[in-house]
Fold:
Amino acid sequence: MRFSTGTRVAALASVWLSFTSALPGLGHDNDDVITRDVAIIGGGASGTYAAIRLRELGRSVALIEQRDELGGHTHTYYDAAAPIDYGVWIYTNNTDMERFFAHFNIPLVAEILNGDPAYTRRYDFRTGEAVAALGGNIIDALTRYVGILLQHPYLAGGFDLPDPVPEDLLLSFGDLIEKYDLGAAVDMITQFDQGFAENILDYPSIYILKYLDLAVIQGIQFGFSRPASRANQDLYKAAEAELGEDALLGSTVARIQRQDDKGTSAHHKDTNAHHKGTSAHHIVVDTPSGKQRIIANKVIVAIPPLLENLDGFDLDDRESDIFSRFQYSSYYGSVVNVTGLPRQLQIFNKATDTPYHVADLPGTFTFNPTAVEGIHTGFFGGGAGSLPEDQARQGIIDNLLALRNAGYPVSEPEIIALRSHTPFGLHVSAEEIAGGFYRDLYGLQGYRGMYYTGAAFHAHNSAELWEFTERVLQEHVLVD
Structure:
């Protein structure tokens, strides 16, 4: 059912007014009530795509985003000389990605990554000591890695796993390396699998395989895509303009009065029998101009589904139990004004005293040159849970200054932009995966009128998230 007629709007508004007194802190003021087919919580890659696509398909939407702009992990620093992306940078290629950019008439160009060793260096960012490249035949190791991916094609679509879950997916990444002799490829794998917590070798291998998947490997071979403007934020600026007042920026959900699968409020089954038979969700949103009330038939959650993010969401025990199991790490993108580094050089953090020289974390994963002389991007992360912004900021500066010991005349760094991607890389233990965690997680699609998308349900890859979100819309939201 969708709310598209005046009668239905009036009826639902009446239902809303009849029970607002049941929600603590809400009175009968003159706030307008927004009535929509779908409310979308989170305006990152997945939420923005869902909002634009649903409107394209004739559904009305309200998009609620905490920040003052859309885009999630997409950040562009608009320098006078050239735009600099310091979040999402490139896109793997698929139909939904191409269609999304075409919707806004944003042209794409191919981005071929330069794998020339002459333009890369490896240092221990703690000391500035040079670290040698790993030995072995990288082509043979990557061929074996691709062979593993080909055994598990379902990983390209998300976490819809077979039962029992294959043993290789549950092995720690370190054990997978040993089992299949992947050591020579670890450098490349860790270059693309950034943002993990303290030791990537301890993660269940399923997460590594999903981040460096076949689509990414094809991009490495044949090219990725990016906007011709070199500014990924342009996509989300266009989306903001199209959504207009349907995008509630700088806004958070204060409370959702949700319905269970029988159309009855989970917290008011006995005292509010008059709601039975309705499927509306009633949402109170804190906006810059005050509280806004929304009535929506369905809700899409496109934010990290952690309990601290879902306060006020009227969760039941089943939902709370699943979401409480997630762990995560911190990840920051930065733009740094610093001289003394070669303009074309990409510098990777590698440790001298760890297996396969994986970086010691928390720390900066890499410093990358940009189109603007004297400006680099740096990506910092690691650690279990949240790292304070001041720790990330100081860590980036300390890692740059350590490169003086490598012989580079590094100036005093100035961080001119810093954005947090925390919580990043939501994950659970191998034991929980084997016990059916993702079966239970995916079982929440449509439960009590709530639908889910985002990186926790697939991977930190915008193009693949758009593809995943399209399936959620077509297979669930538009038909349930």
